[in-house]
Amino acid sequence: MPTQLDLSAEPRDVFGKHVKRLRREGIIPANIYGHGASRAIQAPARALERLLVSGGRTSVINISFDGHAETALLKTLQRDPRSGQILHIDFQAVSMDQEVTSVVPVHFVGESIAVTKLDGVMMHPRNELHVTARAGDLPDAIEVDVSSITELHGAIHVSDLPTSGTYQVIDNPEEVLAIVLPPKVEVEEEVEEAVAAEAAAEAEAGAGAATETTESAEAPASSESESA
Fold this sequence. Notes:
By secondary structure, this protein is an alpha+beta fold. The protein folds into two domains: 4-94, CATH 2.40.240.10; 101-182, CATH 2.170.120.20. Helix content is 28%, strand content 36%. The strands form three sheets. It has a seven-stranded mixed sheet with strand order 1-5-6-7-3-4-2.
């Protein structure tokens, strides 16, 4: 069962442009959708930030307000692009036995000898996965063991993940989760060698063109000498 987080909120009766006053007071407007008409709520900005730090982006949240509680998942989050302040949050109400689709973080564990022995550089193109499951079965995270990567250019794809009896990863099976690339120095040396080879080829071609020009220029001079 996933970790459940708690949020204490209040019913909201401030709407439209007037919500700016709420934000100035450190209160963030929010809505809960699903299981009936949407419910307008509000909660302290600090409480919401703590919720997000604790895993509120992907965990089931128990929201208490107006004398009762609802379980929900975070649906959308809006922030001010300049200040980073939360502007609005939408939650999606769910029951614990309801099938849902959610984003789950990837936790990379283990060590790859391609990094420790071959000096490769580990890259993680993806750190989240899309998962379908009953809300009560959503994993807090999906572990990916990178110790199976034993050579440079080795990779772990979504298709390499073990199957689960409680959830299903729905991302493209060919998506790369982890890959070990050659050392940066080696890559730079290859680039330098390629540049040097190209420069040498250009210099050789230039020298050949110069020789042809010289020979062409000398030919008329010889003709004039013979005529004289």
